[in-house]
Structures are given as C-alpha cells and as structure tokens.
Amino acid sequence: MSTHVLGFSRNWTPLPLAAPRGAVSSPSDPATAGNDAGAPTAPAPGGEGETHSRHQDARLGSTDKELKAGAAAADSAPTAPGTPWQRGPRVAVMDAAGGSRNPLPRPCRVLVLLNPRGGKGKALQLFRSHVQPLLAQADVSFTLTLTERRNHARELVRAEDLRRWDALVVMSGDGLMHEVVNGLMERPDWETAIQKPLCSLPAGSGNALAASVNHYAGYEQVTNEDLLTNCTRLLCRRLLAPMDLLSLQTASGQRLFSVLSLAWGFIADVDLESEKFRRLGEMRFTLGTFLRLAALRTYQGSLAYLPVETVDSKMPPCPARDQQAQQGPVDAHLVPLEEAVPSHWTVVPEQDFVLVLALLHSHLGSEMFAAPMGRCAAGAMHLFYVRAGVSRATLLRLFLAMEKGRHMACDCPHLVYVPVVAFRLEPKDRKGVFAVDGELMISEAVQGQVHPNYFWMVSGCRESPPSLEPQASPSRRPPPAEHL
Question: What are the residues facing 172 on neighbouring strands?
Fold first, then answer.
C-alpha cells in the first residue's frame, strides 16, 4: 500500500463575479427576471424558455453553420485560460455492457433545476448572463424551475414525467445533484429514471462534480464564471459519458446514493462549521479550514475496505441479506453491518483519525484537486485517510499545495491512499459528522460500494475508464431514447 498526501483547502483566490451580460431572452422567459435589486420579479418556477434566433457570440467562437452541423462550441476557444485536448470525430459513448449511447439530440429540450440561494445567491443572474445565450445558439430549449427549500429537487424529480426531457440540468452546488440522483433512485421506475442524462452547471459553494467533469474534458482548472461557461459548452456539445454511483447503507437502515464523496472528520466538520459563511461562496471553505486547523482534533473509529487488487471476479459475491426488500442495485460486496467484514477485506489497525474520505472523482472543490493520481477504473473509488499525529504545519503545507494537485509529492507519512471497491466506517464516539456530496448526515456506522457506469452525464470525455468487473452490470445498457 502506498502512502500519499491529502490536503484540505477548497478555494484560496476565487475570481470575482463578472458583471452580467445582457441575456438573449423573450418576455415570457422566467430567466429574464431576477431577484436582484431593481429587476422584475421572477415568475413562478416552471416557466418555459423560448427558442431564440441564433447569433454570433464572440465568447462562443463558433459559426452558425458549425452549430447546425451538431458541433456546437466544439471548435471554440475555451473561456478557461488553456486549451482542451484535441478531439477526433464525434462518436457514441460505450456503456459497461458493450452498448452505446448517442449524443443528446438536436434540437434538445432540458429541464433546468436551479437553486437561487446556492453559493453567493447569484445563480439566476449567472444563468441569464452566461448560460442562456449559449443554449439559444445551440438549439437547447429549456424549462427553468427554481428550487424553494431543502429536498425540493428530490421531490420534483420523483414526480416528474421524464419523457418530456432529453436531459436534466442541475445548476447549483454538489448538494442539488445529490438530491436529484436520490430522487430518481426513489422512483418506482428507478432503473429507467436513473438513465436520464444529467448535467452539472456550477453555481454553489462546492462545485466539485463540475470541476471534475471540466478536468476530464481537458480544460485547465478554473473557477466561477469560467467553470460555468466550460460546463455550459459541454452541454451544447451534447456528448455523454457514464459515471459511477456510490451506494451507501447506514446503521439506522437508511439507503442513499452518492455521486461524489463521503467525508468524515476534518473535511465534514469544515462543511458543517462553514455553513454560516455561505455568502462567501467557496471562500467559506478556506475560512472553515483555518478555523478547524486552529482547533484540530482527532476522531475515533474503525475502518475497513476491499482493495481493488483483491477483487476476484471468480469469487461469488455475498450480498447483504437485508437488501432483498430494498430498492436499487444489490451491493454484492457488502454484508449486513452487524456482521464482521469478509475475511478478504483489509482492516485498518489504527482507530484514531484526522479524516477519512471516499472520493469518486478528481476534485473535492473547484480548486481542490484531491486525486491527481488519475481516474480510478470503473467500479472503484479513491480512499484516503489521515492518521492522528499529523501537525497543523503539515496540514497547512498540504492544503496549500492541493490547489494544483502538487500535494501528492509531499510524501506525508500520516496519510494513506488506496483505490477500493467498497468500505466500512464505524465511528466510536460522538465527535464529527458525515458529509455525503457536501450534505450532512449524523455520525453512525456506514458502508458503501461503487456501482460502475451507472448513470449518464454530459461530459467532454467520450470513454469511461476500464471496468474492474466487465460482466458485473449487464443491465446498464440504456433503453432507446424514446423510452426515457
């Protein structure tokens, strides 16, 4: 097992928000109305976005002919300071079962779920100024729905007629995408619903999923409007890629799903304690990190995991017996929490930690490049844990280096990294909380398993990583688009 480094800073020098540009809009479009001072009052959520005549946009850098050919923004210079990887001819994405997924159609119709209070509270203005003009040029029509409370998006997608939409667009932070995915998995038709393509447009405090998609597309690491514009361009290009899903089971009997991460200890406490600074945007995590460093503490618990290298496809899995009545995929590598982990798992001897982090993607924030070692194989995740005894000075040095992913060269002896397929974490005291995709949950025993290539996201990366278990998910072949 190799020993590496993990840092904790989310954001250090965020770019200031640019003055909104005039959005291309129609009088009936709810995105033309904001809740900023002096603007008209926004109509009720769910108003229709109009299709507008396309025009040249210097920021897009593509001709109308290119857009009509289905290459919307494909040859444009990125807003980000850097250029994406060179791309070959456009192809369909392969799924885990050997099937393929065509790009989103043209014209395309999407449902936009937007949290107007996320991050600095500027999401609606940013949608008008940075997103709507690009969608209009790329033949993407939309219905905009503003979320009004916690779990509102979860309730909406549970009841929504998904056949009306080619994709669901989530404009907020990682927490709103967490709500949407769990809402889809709670539907009676969850197996079909979870295959509805999703798109992440960053407008919250934590934008890790969007930053990871931006990284996979070959763009340089950017924040704020630059990241939002890059992700909007990916939507205009319409390419889809399969993403892994982390299934979680808790001691209280809860079943939930994660699209990004589970954190316990330091990182989760920063999430909780920085809530009061939400108006600072991602800078809240920087302030929260310093406050937690000043009062650094340890957390007692037991950790076990199933390393990638010990997964044997010939070994018959033993799914937890209490899963028979549960909705969702079977967690074949997990046994009930009241039982000991299987003998081929690794049990960590230490029981005093500074943090534990299970991470599906490259980033834990738009400027928190937590996993520069590369993307895990489909069906695996990054597991980091920091043992007690690390000094404040070392932690400070690590999170300063994390912005560009250079912390991995520090060789801190207190941090262990290993790619895993499943894990179990059992806190022994009442200290700390869990953060799942940035959403807080009580501290209790939890275990999780990755399901490879389980849902589709708008992405600039056409291919999924190689799968650990190519025969494990034969049911993931998507149905024809008309059934979605």
Answer: 202
Q: Read off the amino acid at residue 333.
A: H
The torsion angles phi and psi of 429, rounded to 5 degrees, stand at -135, 180
Catalytic residue among 174, 244, 271, 437: 174
Closest CA to 452 of 180, 94, 91, 92: 94
The reported pTM is: 0.77
Q: Are the beta carbons of 477 and 94 closer than 8 angstroms?
A: no
- Please check whether residue 44 is in contact with residue 153, taking contact to mean a CB–CB distance below 8 angstroms: no
Listed residue (49, 30, 45, 20) closest to 109, CA to CA: 49
Expressed in angstroms, the distance from the first to the final Cα of the chain is 43
Helix axis angle, 283-294 to 392-401, nearest 10°: 160
Q: Is 273 exposed, middle or buried (0-12, 13-18, 19+ CB in 10 A)?
A: middle
CA gap 33, 110 in Å, rounded? 19
- Angle subtended at Cα 363 by Cα 362 and Cα 365, rounded to the nearest 5 degrees: 175
Helices 152-159 + 174-185 axis angle, to 10: 40
Q: What proportion of the chain, given as a percentage, has pLDDT over 70?
A: 69
- Res 284 pLDDT > 50: yes
> Do the Cβ atoms of 11 and 289 come closer than 8 Å?
no
Tokens of 356: 């534990």
Closest of 296, 295, 252 to residue 441, by C-alpha: 252
pLDDT 10s digits, 232-271: 999 999 999 999 999 999 999 999 999 999 999 888 888 7
Active site residue 174: yes
- Please give the full DSSP string across 180-195, using - where no structure is assigned: HHHHHHTSTTHHHHTT
Q: Residue 480: is it exposed, middle or buried by C-beta count within 10 angstroms (0-12/13-18/19+)?
A: exposed
Give the Cβ contact number of residue 255 at 10 Å.
16
Question: DSSP string spanning 424-437?
Answer: EEEE-SS---EEET
C-alpha span between 398 and 284 (Å, rounded): 18
